[in-house]
């Protein structure tokens, strides 16, 4: 199939763009050798990603409409129609910069929240939204802009297969998806630290070193699709959702586009850009590219359009950024490690901790690359993604420490010293770092709070209801801006939300299902029913497709026949007694329709099937339980 010559992915367009990219690199090299970059000023900045949710705390795909209502250039689109982002104005790294950062964040979140209210929705800060389902990730929910379609098409084409997600934590998640939309399960709080070109290598190395402990204390993403996975599941989801490698690429140790890095930086930012261009293919090109040398000849800082566009498709956790402020070019380190939430106050505390460590480690240590191998730092990062604040990491003295001990004894003093050295307001420093201290001392960050809340919720609630409770409670406490270590445990709240809370089967179906194989013996079926106290067991074939259902009714009928005829029951298989004409439903089937389907077919259970695979089951008991809770709720209001 020939590529459309007008496509941004046409080979000729990609070759031309690569030429522009190399030209930008040469211009950047020339700029670095001159005195053109801003060096005497340090600024900080931030970008905030949000989930848009409806009244049931479910993803709400209305970003186009919401942006129109907000009408503020600081806000922009994200990949999915239930995501949103805004960018803050840079602040000088001094005085009241931290409290100003909090004020800016609060102002913009409030603005988004008010606009969302007009659409009967809200916005929430969570690393991974607990109520999101795979069915939310269809292409009908992608933001309808060319760049997102191009990104999806390019990554899918290079990969040559479905996008696959495999994460193993307390639970195990293994799913395949046909688009890049898995990325939209995440939202982050990205912070920027401006650095002088001569300091870039040293400070980027420090950002790599401190990524692990900062991630550990900030983790806020322990659940995805109802599964308890990493403390910061975002890390694995983002890396795998943007991964365009084929199976054979792993033999050659090809790096994913989302990565921690491969080694320390020794000289300049050029090393990162050179490595990325050498490793990764250009995904798409554009013709609107400024000639950087023409800009330099005219005394202007070039935009480096090609380099910036290419860099936006490489997702290092600590990414180099080029920018221009008041006509002067500068370099920044963008920290992409931090999750969104749990509150704005928590986010600014996380940022203060990181900004302080960047400055404090730089002030205290000369060359950290001589004190710890890069692979140990990378290992620290992955360990803290998995275990968060409960992790143990290796530090510069060659010893391993629990994150809590290292943070309280060394990292918080280092961070405070770094902030004081840049004349950050002492009251701000104490205010925000005390939040980190209290959080670490208590051992409760966003991830721990979500996990503890989930496990203390009564087992009468389904997994979906518990996930909804976590989102509900997060939103409630988030609006109060009280730090997460002070939050009470989540409770199930459904006041005035029954219609949405149980609108579809997927919201309350049982997903932990006991199944049988069609070749299993009837004795196994009988014992599973007795042991697990269940009356319906779906039957699957070797391809895990639903082929039948064994019910308590059919089991009793068969056993009675066996006893009456004195037959040998050991030769009876599940396929001999199962109902082969099974009435099923999908996760998105309205609950009322499911009830009608059960009544019309005189069945007490419905297997829930999606894409030919069994994903859950709903029974009369589930509807009875809902009716019981609904009746109690209604009677209380009288």
Write a structural description.
43% of the residues lie in helices and 15% in strands. The chain has 638 residues and is an alpha+beta fold. The protein has two domains: 37-142 and 167-233 and 330-363 and 377-493, 2-Layer Sandwich (Creatine Kinase, Chain A, domain 2), CATH 3.30.590.20; 505-636, CBS-domain (Roll), CATH 3.10.580.10. Strands 1, 2, 3, 4, 5, 8, 13 and 14 form an eight-stranded antiparallel beta sheet that branches. Strands 17-18-19 form a three-stranded mixed beta sheet. Strands 6-7 form a two-stranded antiparallel sheet. Helix 1 crosses helix 9 (305-311), helix 5 (200-218) packs across helix 10 and helix 10 crosses helix 13. The chain is elongated.
Summarize the helices and strands and which ones pair or pack.
Elements: H1 11-32, E1 43-53, H2 63-70, E2 75-76, E3 83-87, E4 91-92, H3 97-118, E5 122-124, H4 146-159, E6 163-168, E7 172-177, E8 189-195, H5 200-218, E9 223-224, E10 227-228, H6 233-241, E11 258-259, H7 270-279, H8 292-297, H9 305-311, E12 315-316, E13 318-325, E14 328-335, H10 344-364, H11 374-387, E15 392-394, E16 400-402, H12 403-421, H13 426-442, H14 446-456, H15 463-480, H16 498-501, E17 516-517, H17 522-532, E18 536-540, E19 546-551, H18 552-564, H19 574-577, H20 591-600, E20 605-610, E21 613-619, H21 620-636
Parallel strand pairs: 11-12, 17-18
Antiparallel strand pairs: 1-3, 1-4, 1-5, 1-8, 2-3, 6-7, 8-14, 9-10, 13-14, 15-16, 18-19, 20-21
Helix pairs in contact: 1-9, 2-3, 3-10, 5-10, 5-11, 10-12, 10-13, 12-13
